[in-house]
Automatic annotation (TrEMBL):
One of its GO terms (cellular component) is UTP-C complex. Belongs to the casein kinase 2 subunit beta family. GO terms for biological process: regulation of transcription by RNA polymerase III. Residues 225-245 have a biased composition (Acidic residues). Coiled coil: none annotated. It comes from Xylona heveae (strain CBS 132557 / TC161). The lineage of its organism: Eukaryota, Fungi, Dikarya, Ascomycota, Pezizomycotina. Residues 224-253 are annotated as: Disordered. This is Casein kinase II subunit beta.
Length: 253
C-alpha cells in the first residue's frame, strides 16, 4: 500500500486489484474478473459478512470516491481485503477461476511438497473450513494426499476460507489428467544397512500406544483392564507364598 501513498485517491482505487494481487503475501490469490465482481448474484449473502460492505465493494471495483479520514479508510481497506477473499473462494471454482489457478499451480506459485518421496510435487492452497476466521490456509499435495503449513508466515496468516474446502478436489475432477500417480514409496528405517525388523517396530509402536492409553485412563480414574508385568510377578510371588504356607501346615499335624 505504501507504493500508492504518493498517488491520488483516483489513481489508488484504479489499481486496487493490481496492488492487492502484486502485494507480498498475496501470491496465492488470482485476479477476479470485474464482470464477476459486478454481478450481484455472485455476492449473495456477503453484505452480512463484511463491515462497510458497499464501500469495500466500491473500492474493489474501482469506483470508490468517498472523502474520509485515515482511520475510516483503513477500516474500509481491511473490509475490502476480506470481501475480496470471500469472493475469491467462490470465483476459483468457476471455469475461469479454475483456469487461472491451474496456471499458477503449473508454475509452482503455491510451493512444492516438502516430502522427499513426492519429488517436488506442486501444492494447492485449501481451507479446513468454509467459515472465515476459523483456520488458516493449508497446502495440499495430490501425490501423498496430505496437507502442510505454508513456509512463509505471510502466507500462513491467510484465512483458509478464502480458498474453501472444495477447490482442490474440484480442480482435479475438472482436470483429471493432472492427478499424479500416488506415492507408494516409503522410508525404510535401517541399522548399518539392515532393515529394522518390522515385527519389532510394530511391537514398539503398540507398546507406546498402550502406555499412552493407560495413562489417559489412569488420569480419568478408569480401570484400564491391562495386566501389568509387575502385577503378574506379584501374583506369582503371592501364589508361591500361599503354597509354602500350605506345605508348612501339612507337615505340622
Amino acid at each position: 500500500m505504501d507504493d500508492f501513498n504518493s498517488e491520488t485517491d483516483s489513481d489508488y482505487t484504479s489499481y486496487w486489484r493490481d496492488w492487492f494481487i502484486s502485494s507480498r503475501g498475496n501470491e496465492y490469490f488470482c485476479e477476479i474478473d470485474e464482470e464477476y465482481l459486478t454481478d450481484r448474484f455472485n455476492l449473495t449473502g456477503l453484505n452480512t459478512e463484511v463491515q462497510y460492505y458497499q464501500y469495500a465493494l466500491d473500492l474493489v471495483t474501482d469506483v470508490f470516491d468517498l472523502d474520509c479520514d485515515d482511520d475510516m479508510r483503513e477500516q474500509i481497506e481491511k473490509s475490502a481485503r476480506h470481501l475480496y477473499g470471500l469472493v475469491h473462494a467462490r470465483y476459483i471454482v468457476t471455469t475461469r477461476g479454475l483456469a487461472k489457478m491451474l496456471e499458477k499451480y503449473k508454475k509452482g506459485d503455491f510451493g512444492k511438497c516438502p516430502r522427499v518421496m513426492c519429488e517436488h510435487q506442486p501444492l494447492l492452497p485449501m481451507g479446513l473450513s468454509d467459515n472465515p476466521n476459523v483456520k488458516p490456509v493449508k497446502l495440499y499435495c495430490s501425490k501423498c494426499e496430505d496437507i502442510y503449513n505454508p513456509k512463509s508466515s505471510r502466507h500462513a496468516s491467510i484465512d483458509g476460507a478464502y480458498f474453501g474446502t472444495s477447490f482442490h478436489n474440484i480442480l482435479f475432477q475438472v482436470y483429471p489428467a493432472l492427478v499424479p500417480p500416488k506415492s507408494i514409496r516409503r522410508y525404510e528405517p535401517r541399522v548399518f544397512g539392515f532393515r529394522v525388523h518390522a515385527a519389532a517396530a510394530l511391537q514398539r509402536w503398540q507398546d507406546a500406544r498402550r502406555e499412552e492409553l493407560k495413562d489417559r485412563l489412569h488420569k480419568l480414574k478408569i480401570d484400564s483392564g491391562f495386566e501389568d508385568d509387575d502385577d503378574g510377578e506379584r501374583e506369582d510371588e503371592e501364589e508361591e507364598d500361599e503354597a509354602g504356607d500350605m506345605d508348612v501346615v501339612a507337615t505340622n499335624p
